[in-house]
Amino acid sequence: MARSLTLDAASLDAKERTARDPAERRPRSEVPAAPASFEDKVVLAIFAVGLVGNTVLQKIAFPLKAGGFVPLVLPLFVAAIALGPILIRPKFDPARIGGFFLAFLVAAFSTFFLAPRYSASSLMLFAALYAPFMIHYETSAANYRRCMNLLISVMLGFVGVTLAQHLIQLALSWRAWPNLNLLLPQEWLVPEYNYIQPIIYGSRFMKPNAVAFLEVSLLSQFIAVALAAELVLFRRPIRLIVLASGLLMTLAGTGALLLALTLPVLLGRMRMRNAVVMIAILLVVCVVAFRLGWFDIVSSRMDEYKRNGSSANMRFILPLERMVEFLRDPRGLIAGIGAGQIEKGRNFIWWPFTKVAIEYGLITAIIFYAWVIYCLFRRAPERAFAFVLLVWYSFEGTLLTAHNVLSLVLFGTLLRVAPEEPLRRRSKEPKPPQPDGALPVAATARPSRTSLPEPVPAGDVSGEALVRVLGTPDSGGRLIYAIGDLHGRVDLFDRLIARIRDDIAAHPGGYEDKPMVVLLGDYIDRGPASAQLIERILALHDDATIEWRAVLGNHEDAMVAFLDARSSGQSWGRHGGATTLASYGITAPETAEGWDATREQLRAVLPEAHDAWLRGLEHHIVQGGLIFVHAGLRPGVPLEKQRLKDILYIREEFLGAPVDSDLLIVHGHTPQDEAYGAPGRICLDSGAYATGVLTAARFDGGPVKLLTSR
Asked: PANTHER family this protein is in (predicted)?
């Protein structure tokens, strides 16, 4: 166990693992996986509506009879969010709600009582745009990745449009581009943006806007956000190259600046070797850009930062200067100049913090910004991506522009990964008969209401594809069988052990030691015969022809914590402990006060052998190139420094990070209908208590073989 295990980034070298196979690069549609739940489909639909409105329809507006306009994305997205609760239940964080009302009330007080003049409509727009921050939807880790993959795919499409625009203006003229200013009535368009902008002032060539974007700087920023999502979640080399190339093809600096400011955070979560590979990819793109003159074009505009009235000066220099000037007035601490009173027009682009501070006062700005940061980072699926969004909004966004605020909602605050999702399939099999001499199973045992999570990361495979991906892991010269989560299904365990014995008998010899059977934890709870299963496992140790080993699962850990009075038992009971108590002839209490008495009952009837076995379970087992563990391992942490909590409970952080290690991690804990995995890991938890399928895997130095019992 002297090996160090790091799991923080995907290897991009095809020769690094002999197990790598073209099958792992198959499209998701060809990968056998369970379908998304109804709730996930609704969440994906809401995300898709917001994404299409914020990109494809970004330039479209809805004219108002009284004059003015409303960006079409605003009613579209608000309607999607409003209809969502009809189909699925939204979530509300009290801190989000409280923070919103606190910021709004302080801003209202500053406006109505301290400001010399104000625009009430500006204050109402402020409240309306940020109200969606109060709501969020929980979805599976896989569906969150689907949403982010949709963002990336849409932006890849716009990269293609950008390339087409370059080719059209080289072959014909930029005037041959589809031009929404000419195709649609002016009242149906968002005004006051540089839709058509020359590469260099006076040039006959124009910067591409991908037709749909208000101006090229926004196209550049959205591509940079998609590139950040790809770096954080997927790290697919081809897509990284295409997105980076698209970013350079825009010939705009704001997206590149956003990436430059956040790249240290994006690469900091990777192992050094893989960060170097990512940097190498970006450097190759930059070299090509240099040869094409991209840096000459961008550097020619660097003096804009010093020139008053220029785009760069108004975007990055003036907001800071105006903020410093305002804070020289002591009244600026609590009072501003009034809602909607900051200078407008002439390309003014005020940072959100600057606008709030100047119009409502510094205290309001601090409260508001602290609330925005809380909404972005609290339970963020990927904090590195949340950081990118914060930088984007802070320095390249505006306070009351719909596409800026709704992008922050859509990509940053709307989605949170749920700890569990609804059960997709329950076993229709009757409860198994109890073997002769078994401990009694109480008829009053309550069924567990746990769930099978949705498929984890896109790219995981099962069946024959999984066998090909895993290749021929090193078993250290041993014949080894690993069995997934049992959860009281002694009937399935008996059948699978019989299959394993038959397989051992039929398997050729020549191994260094006797066969080994490794159990991957979660022997108790949820299923009907936890006590009987422990008794059966203990009896197997009398068979000296096989080495029997078992690792600790989170359910055994919870039971021991209850026995030791380190937990009340209520949470354990809700997550399947009631069935374990029933298998020992104890009825779970109906009230919180009854759990102390239940603990004493369990201590009285629990056989000493069971108690000793539960307390002696191993945390992990290493054999050859295999590591057996219940839930997984924390990415980037050496094996000897792994926390027990992660070993027993980790899910998304492990399953969402590609494995970069010499070891194959064999685990359970996160169930699906069948074994699944990716290069470097395999999960054998097939949800036996719910699906009626128990899974094992054979490791013998050759291809992995999967065995099941039903």
From this structure: METALLOPHOSPHOESTERASE, ZINC-DEPENDENT ENDOPOLYPHOSPHATASE
Strand partners, 694: 709
**Measured distance CA(581)–CA(595) in Å, rounded:** 11
Question: Contact 358/337 with Cβ under 8 angstroms?
Answer: yes
47 or 421, greater pLDDT? 47
The 10s digit of each residue's pLDDT in 71-87 is: 888 888 888 888 888 88
Element of type H or E holding 549: strand 547-550
Cite the beta strand spans of 324-465 per DSSP E. 415-417, 461-462
**Tokens for 692?**
């009626």
- Please return the burial class of 495, using the count of CB atoms within 10 Å of its CB with bins 0-12, 13-18 and 19+: middle
Q: At what angle do helices 272-291 and 237-249 cross, to 10 degrees?
A: 40
User: 3-state DSSP call for residue 155?
Assistant: helix
Amino acid in position 697: A
**Token pair for residue 380?**
């963020």
Residue 421 near residue 279, CB atoms below 8 Å: no
**If you search the block for the tokens 């719910």, which residue do you land on?**
690
Strand ranges, E, within 66-127: 69-71, 91-92
DSSP per position, 300-353: TTGGGGTSTTSHHIIIIIHHHHHHHHHHTSGGGGT--S-TT-S--STT----HH
The radius of gyration of the chain from alpha carbons, rounded to an integer in Å, stands at 30
**Length of the chain in terms of residues written:** 710
564-576 per-position pLDDT tens digit: 888 888 888 888 8
Dihedral angle at the C-alpha atoms of 252, 253, 258, 263, nearest 10 degrees?
Answer: 110
| Short-list 537, 553, 578, CA closest to 450 | 578
| Distance (Å, whole) CA 547 – CA 541 | 8
Q: Are 592 and 568 contacting, i.e. CB atoms less than 8 angstroms apart?
A: yes
Distances (CA, A) of 692 to 93, 401, 583, 674, 676: 37, 53, 19, 11, 17
Q: What is the DSSP letter of 575?
A: I
DSSP H or E segment with residue 277: helix 272-291
Q: Which of 594, 662, 588 is nearest to 622 (CA)?
A: 662
Q: Lowest mean pLDDT: which of 83-87, 165-169, 288-292, 676-680?
A: 288-292
HSE (side-chain half, CA atoms, 13 Å) at 345: 0
- Can you tell me whether residue 548 is helix, strand or coil? strand
Write down the mean pLDDT value for the chain: 81
| β-bridge partners, 92 | 135
| Closest by Cα among 634, 568, 263, 587 to 440 | 587
Give CA 489 to chain center in angstroms: 32
- CA neighbor of 482 nearest in space, from 492, 497, 472: 497
Select, from the ranges 387-401, 417-431, 597-611, the one with the highest average predicted confidence (pLDDT): 597-611
Q: What is the pLDDT of residues 353-373, one digit of tens each?
A: 888 888 888 899 999 999 999
Strand pairing category for 676-678 and 461-462: antiparallel
Predicted structure pTM score: 0.58
Question: How many angstroms from the chain centroid is the CA of residue 280?
Answer: 26
CA-to-CA distance for 543 and 150, rounded, in angstroms?
Answer: 53
* Residue 587 φ/ψ region, left for φ over 0, alpha for ψ in the -120 to 50 degree band, beta for the rest: beta
